[in-house]
C-alpha cells in the first residue's frame, strides 16, 4: 500500500455508529487538505432507504510524489547596487508512507556592492549560498501520546528543519547554522498555535577584521576624533598620496584602547570619550559570534475569511526565552567563563534573554472599494544572566517598505540618534500605521498612509541618552512618516510602490523636527510585493 492505513484513518472524523455531524465532515476536509498530499478530497454520503443510515464514501486523489520549484530574483538594497538570486526546492510527499513531506531547498546569490569593493575586485563581489532541509510530520512527534492535550481535530503537525547559509562580502562574512523543532496546531479555525520546542542558531563571523571597512561611518567618527581633539601619536597616522593625514585603519582597535585608557582625555572631553566608548561597544557586539538556544510560543487569532476579505482583524503574540537550558546546566557541564564573566560553550558565549512581540492589524471596509487599514506593534527583548545585549539577529530595526516607509531599512533610530550607523538596531520597538486604500480604476489601486514609530535601547549595555528609552518622555522621539502609493492587483499577488516623506524626524533638534526634509529629494521610494500589513 502507498499509505499506511493509520495515516489516513487519523484524518477521518466520520465514525461508524455515530450520529451524522456536519462538523465531522468539515474537520475531515480540513485535516485532509492540511496533509498537502491529496488534491480535491471528496466526501459523498449515500442514504440507505431501508433504515436511513448513511454510508460515507471518501475519494482521495494523490498529488504527484515529487515537486520541483525554481525562483529567480533581481534586487537592489542599501549595500548592493544590483543583485541576482536563484533558489530551487524539491518536495517529496509521503516519503515514509505516513503522509510526511520532505522539502530540500538551496539558494545562491551574487551581487555588486555599492562601495565595499576595491578596483581590483570583480564587479560581482558579493555572494551567498545555502541550503535547508525540512520534514513535516502530520501529527505530534513525541515519545508519549498527546491526543488528550492536543486532539487530532486541531490538525497538529511537527516540523523539523536544519539550514545553513554562508555570506561573503556582506558585513563580516557570516556563516549561519539553524535548527528548529516545531509543533503547530489549530484549536479553532481562527486560532493558530506554534511552539518552537528548540530553536538553535549559531552565527560565526569569518572576517571580523573587516569591521571598519563595512561600518565606514563609525570609522569616520573615530578618525575625526583622532585628527581633531585627541593628541594622537604619529604611529597611528598615515599620509595618503595627496598629503592628507588619515587614521591608520589597521590600528583602529589599538587607537580605541589608547583613548579608553586615557583618564585625562575622559575628564577634558567627556563627549568625545563617550563616542569612542560607544563605537567600541557596538563593534564588539556586532563582531562577536552568537549561540542562541531558544524556545518560543506564538498565538495568532486570524479572523480573515479569505484573501478577498476586507473587514477583519489579526492579533499575533509571541514569547521567546533563550539560554535558560544552558544556564541551568552550565555548572553541570563544566562550562568556562570568558574575560567578560560569561559562560562559553564551544568557545562562544551563549545568549540569554526574554523577548515578546504583540502585533494587531485591523481592516475596515467603508464602501465604494475603500478600506481603512491600521496596525499597532510592540516588541521588547531584555537580556539578562549571561548576556548584556541582544544578538543582532534577534534585535529590532525600523524603516523599510513594510515599516516606516519614510526611512530605509535600518536607517531610523535608535531614539533621537543621528542615524549615521549603517545598521541601526535595538531591543525595544513601537510602530503604528494607518492607511486608506481605494480603487482608481480596474486593477489599479491607490493609498494614503501615515507611519509612526521608532526603536530604542532599554535595560541593556547602551548608555547613550539619545538612544535609550527612559519613560514616557522618550515618546517625543517617535518618528512620523507619511506618503502615498500605487498598487496593481494581479490577482495572485499585488505589486506595490510607495513614496514616504519624513514628516517628523527626531534626529533633528527638538525645535526643528517638523517637515525638515518633507520633499521629493529626501523622500524614500519603496517597491514591495503585497500589502505592508
Amount of beta strand: 35-45%
Q: What is the number of E strands?
A: 24
Helix content: 10-25%
Report the C-alpha radius of gyration, rounded.
Answer: 28 Å
Give the overall average pLDDT: 90
Low-confidence stretches: none
Shape: globular
For the largest beta-sheet, the strand count, sense and barrel status come to: 17 strands, antiparallel
Structure overview:
- This protein is mainly beta.
- Among the domains are: 5-63, Ubiquitin-like (UB roll) (Roll); 209-287, no CATH class.
- 14% of the residues lie in helices and 44% in strands.
- It is built from 8 helices and 24 strands.
- It has helices spanning 5-9, 22-34, 211-214, 216-227, 252-260, 263-268, 270-287, 324-333, and strands spanning 38-47, 54-62, 66-75, 80-93, 101-113, 126-137, 157-168, 174-188, 191-205, 237-239, 245-247, 290-302, 312-322, 336-337, 343-345, 348-349, 353-367, 370-383, 428-441, 444-456, 479-489, 494-504, 514-517, 524-529.
- Helix 4 packs antiparallel against helix 7.
- The longest helix is centred in the middle third of the chain and has 18 residues, at 270-287.
- The model has no long low-confidence stretch (mean pLDDT 90).
